[in-house]
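Example 3.2
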Amino acid sequence: RERTGVRGGAVSPCAAPTARRNTGAYMMKIFSAAALIFTLMLGSAVAAQARADTVALYTEAVMTGDIPALETLLAPNYWHINANGHIQDKEHFIATIKNKEMVIDRLSFTNARTTIIGDATLITGNGTLRGRAEPPLPQGLMRFTLVLVKDKGRDEVVLFQATPVIPSVDCADGNCKIQ
């Protein structure tokens, strides 16, 4: 009985150091697990912030016509599907902005929903588009979709699509009706 550390239901003096060691090891495991979870959550928050910054930089570059920023932010295989249905690759999209054939006065995002698949991030939401282009752009409420990919540690925009939608009660949570 003395070997088990139990004598009459009480812990023997010989068992106390072992019980303390086991408790200490258990507490260390809990602390390590909590630290790991915190680190993973912080990493996710930092990644989400980086993606939000990429979208903000993209919208700002489109509205201001910042060609060097667009050259950096857009992936080599970028596709732009405008609200008027016009599709352009990176080279033609940048030329359209540079030559002021398309001028965007307002581009905003709300109700963003994000899904991460490997190195790709899909962001969809609604917002407002105001600008001019040929063929003419629909104005107002849009459903936006952006796809970002991570390349050499930084996010690049691979796809942008804007779809005109109709304001409705469901738009408050991003579920607008397509025009």
